[in-house]
């Protein structure tokens, strides 16, 4: 009997596949990086075929490593870097151009124009999003304009989608053009109240509905893989954007439960229940997942530079050799010595959304060492996450019950302790931190009846370590005031 679930985790810098058993344990995994393409400053692209080929290769490798075949796999779940868009030809399956990656700022002028024309409120109320090049809508329009494909798109000859749809199309041999609620909610074209592509916004961005995927439950049927790919057909029963999948993998099933993923950036999602509550300033309302047509909504705050600041210390300043060395260097000093690093390297994301802000290191004197800077870089992840979580908790009327954490930098105990200290709330790290892939596996496995209910999944969540807050309120306030004034100084740097 097929008892395993294969998760395909298509990330920004690499494709990963993990095979899970019934108890949610990773049996085997494989990962492959693929090239990042930077055609001009602020513009990032991927080759869609490199995405597909690397994903397929890792899926096959994970099965091989586990000594399993397609017959052992009950279902596949897909999770993906979000907002990144691909256009392809329905007949040939060939991509029209490189994928425009979520980080790309290429549509900044178009977004500026939408803002000037007063679309902010309409877009916010319909989609839960703010106007920013981050989201897919303006990217679809950019590619349609660039290749003059609107007429063919309107006839359904050109298809468009986020990375999940692109993988689904290839996995099913061109039989299925679909996405799930969570990915659709990141396009700036999807109405999160009516649960449909929004005609007014499609018109505004001149995106023909015919090219867009059908939107389905995150946990449900998405077709089967083409037999030639794995030797037998495997049902695909789960799809979700990677941050939503991580929230699901962390078993944040109840209102008030939140997760923070500390990776290149930091992505915080708070489950707010069955109603799409309006987000506080600077935050987004987004769809977490849909199961049997029932939607769970989340508030989201995305911090663009988290662990990437540690990479900068490694590659730019050469203060450390590998990312994990940051821990020892940071421990060489008792505190940051009043140093703050605001890593606004690509502007600031939530809750500030200032694309003109730039990085700032402040408070230096002759006693400053690499240790202080290392500490400031780690603390910056916690400060930025604090700003988002504080805004979520104080202005949304949803009480934060738990903060669960994951991502590559969540191995850093000092970071998590500092986070708990800043929030005045405990932080919980689970045993399994591959929560993105696990979430995709759970969504697929629920639909394929590998697991019976979310209650059963919640029981599988296991605590590795809890970090209780230890700092006095006055000290917490002092630190946060210092941080806030550093952030203020970094804002609008380029604009001025
Ligand atoms: N011990 C550590 N302390 C702080 N940051 C770390 C540590 N180990 C890794 N990182 C950072 O975590 C990030 C990698 O996390 P990961 O979840 O793999 O990222 P992503 O999925 O966004 O590529 C890198 O930016 C790296 O610098
Ligand atoms: O691929 P990641 O982990 O960097 O995640 C990217 C996010 O989905 C962008 O919104």
Give the topology.
Layout: E1 4-10, E2 14-20, E3 26-33, E4 37-40, E5 43-46, H1 48-66, E6 73-80, E7 85-89, E8 99-100, H2 108-116, H3 120-127, H4 137-147, H5 150-154, E9 158-162, H6 163-171, E10 178-180, H7 181-184, E11 190-191, E12 196-197, H8 199-204, E13 214-216, H9 227-230, E14 236-241, H10 242-249, E15 257-262, E16 266-273, E17 284-291, E18 294-303, H11 307-315, H12 326-331, E19 340-342, E20 360-362, H13 370-395, E21 402-406, H14 413-423, E22 427-430, H15 435-447, H16 454-460, E23 463-467, H17 473-490
Helix pairs in contact: 1-6, 10-15, 11-13, 13-14
Bound molecules: adenosine-5'-diphosphate and SN-glycerol-3-phosphate.
CATH superfamily grouping of the largest domain: ATPase, nucleotide binding domain
Bound molecules: adenosine-5'-diphosphate, SN-glycerol-3-phosphate
Number of strands: 23
Counted by DSSP, the helix tally is: 17
> Low-confidence parts lasting 5 or more residues at pLDDT below 50?
none
User: Tell me about the biggest sheet?
Assistant: 7 strands, mixed
Please estimate the helix content: 25-40%
Strand order of the largest sheet: 17-18-16-15-21-22-23
Q: For the residues shown, what is the average pLDDT?
A: 95
Task: State Rg.
Answer: 22 Å
Shape: globular
- CATH architecture descriptor name of the largest domain: 2-Layer Sandwich
Number of domains: 2
Identify the CATH class of the largest domain.
Answer: Alpha Beta
- CATH topology of the largest domain, by name, is Nucleotidyltransferase, domain 5
- Which class best fits the helix and strand makeup? alpha+beta
Percent of residues in beta strands: 15-25%
End-to-end Cα distance: 64 Å
Protein name: Glycerol kinase
Domain Carbohydrate kinase FGGY N-terminal: 5-249
Pathway: Polyol metabolism; glycerol degradation via glycerol kinase pathway; sn-glycerol 3-phosphate from glycerol: step 1/1
Catalytic activity: glycerol + ATP = sn-glycerol 3-phosphate + ADP + H(+)
